[in-house]
Write a structure and sequence with these properties.
Distance between the termini: 21 Å
CATH class of the largest domain: Few Secondary Structures
CATH topology of the largest domain: HU Protein, Chain A
Largest sheet: 3 strands, antiparallel
CATH superfamily of the largest domain: IHF-like DNA-binding proteins
Helix content: 40-55%
Number of helices: 3
Radius of gyration: 19 Å
Number of domains: 2
Strand order of the largest sheet: 1-2-5
Shape: elongated
Structural class: alpha+beta
Strand content: 25-35%
């Protein structure tokens, strides 16, 4: 399901216009990204949690030459599914 299909589904289930649903979904995603970008954790009970995690420096290989190289430490976004979400996926 892509964003357009999600907008269609939510509009159908709620009776709200597609334009308004699109605004709400876009604003929600932007708010989650902004919060995680500054280091906050966003928890939607039953659905899951969004947070940033530290990835340590590690050694990798240059795919062209095969030479070893250092991959610097960085922060990455992460999602952990909540209990209800996990139960829906794997009953």
């Amino acid at each position: 399901m892509n964003k357009g299909e999600l907008v269609d589904q939510v509009a159908k289930e709620t009776g709200v216009t597609k334009k308004d649903v699109d605004k709400v979904i876009s604003a929600t995603v932007e708010a989650i990204m902004a919060a995680v970008a500054v280091g906050d954790k966003v928890t939607l009970v039953g659905f899951g949690s969004f947070e940033s995690r530290d990835r340590k420096e590690r050694e990798g290989r240059n795919p062209k030459t095969g030479d070893p190289m250092k991959i610097p430490a960085t922060k990455v976004p992460a999602f952990s599914a909540g209990k209800l979400f996990k139960e829906k996926v794997a009953p």
